[in-house]
Amino acid sequence: MAAIMRMIEQVFVGDGSGGGGGERLTGAPTGAEIDALERRVAAVTGLLNATTGRLAELVAEALATGAWEQAGIRSPAHWVAWQTGMSLQRSKRLVRIATRAGELPVTAAAFGAGSLSEDQVGEIAEHVPAAHDAELAGFARHATAAQVGKVCREYSFTPPSPDPASPTADPVPDPAPGDRDERNQVSFGYDDNGRWHERADLDTEFGALVQRALEACRDAEFRARHPEAEPDARPVGVTWADALVR
Questions:
Q1: I need a surface site. Which of 1, 71, 171, 196 has the fewest CB within 10 A?
Q2: Which distant-in-sequence residues (6+ apart) come within 8 Å of 3 by Cβ?
């Protein structure tokens, strides 16, 4: 918190070196003016990083205490999105960072000090084993988020899965390969806009079975809505979504 307050003072008050406050550049800037602008950008960036790092600490507190578990809240990410106005995708990343903060103390400390950005820390939290915490935190201080992401993806690491009961979690795959064909797969989940999606990749026999079930449900839904319809009437006005829900 003290580091954040020092950054706020530097950004809004200045440190006597042109790093805070300052006049807007006009015309062709001199080298000294460009340097001063870059110092101001660095100060604001550090403040943004440190503030988001503090937010990650608060999310970790909510996870540890169960404070996010409230009526109507489907997951920690849903709670973060509700509290902050962030997108669900960004909220998921913040939850991931908070979840792994205890395993990645060097990265978490650098984040809280404003030395690393949310994007950099997110890549480390997503891909890097705890044993390489200090190594990647040191590298990230001198690299772009894209460079950090490229290096982090070289590690063999599977992050802990989110709560499978949460509809805001990543798409839920099959718990095990199908007995008939390991390529038979079904996954589903919510996107950032709260829309539910499902994807199925089935062999011909399984696919035909599902299709017949959908056709039967569509006809049944049409009959329920139009009991007076002729036996051979087409199920007009009933969608495949209606059939799937039925």
A1: 71
A2: 50, 112, 113, 114
